[in-house]
Amino acid sequence: MPTTTEVAPTRSRDAVFRLVAVAILIAAGVVAWVLFRGGTGETPPQDRSITVSITGGRVEPPVGRVEVGKGSTIRLTVTSDVPDELHVHGYDRKAVLEAGRPATLEFRADTTGMFEVETHSGHLLLVQLVVR
Q1: Which residues have a Cβ under 8 Å from the Cβ of 80 and sit 6 or more positions away?
Q2: Which of 30, 75, 98, 131 has the fewest CB neighbours in a 10 Å radius?
Q3: Rounded to whole angstroms, what are the CA distances from 87 to 20, 61, 84, 97, 124?
Q4: CB-based contact 88:76 (threshold 8 Å)
């Protein structure tokens, strides 16, 4: 018949083994959930129209970030009360802004990152484009 001292270490080892096994299963479950939860953190491509007007040095709507998925088609329409040039940094896309006439610039957002859209002469930030 085993003594109490012989039974206790066996039960302790079994309990530790079970705890380690449960911890490994939980960790594997968390990793699987993170990897296969239905997304990679990327935003799916979606065509996006952005309309901005500039009057008296004020940008409407107020400057903000617009997030799009890589591969999206972006259509920027800007109307300014003074002549200027529209520029999309990082994509090096430009359009001439004639006073009072809408200018449209369309391009495919094929590079990820954050890109500022601004006017050159007025140095006005119009929007921050985030491509994921």
Answers
A1: 53, 54, 97, 99, 100, 103, 119, 122
A2: 30
A3: 57, 18, 10, 10, 10
A4: yes
Per-residue pLDDT of 91-131, as tens digits, reads: 999 999 999 999 999 999 999 999 999 999 999 999 999 99
Q: Which helix (H) or strand (E) holds 14?
A: helix 4-36
The residues, ordered by sequence, that sit 6+ positions from 49 with a Cβ below 8 Å of its Cβ are 75, 77
Cβ atoms within 10 Å, residue 126: 25
- Through-space distance between the first and last CA atoms of the chain, rounded to whole angstroms: 68
Q: Exposed (0-12), middle (13-18) or buried (19+): which is 76, by Cβ within 10 Å?
A: buried
Which one, of 112, 126, 116, lies nearest residue 45 by Cα? 112
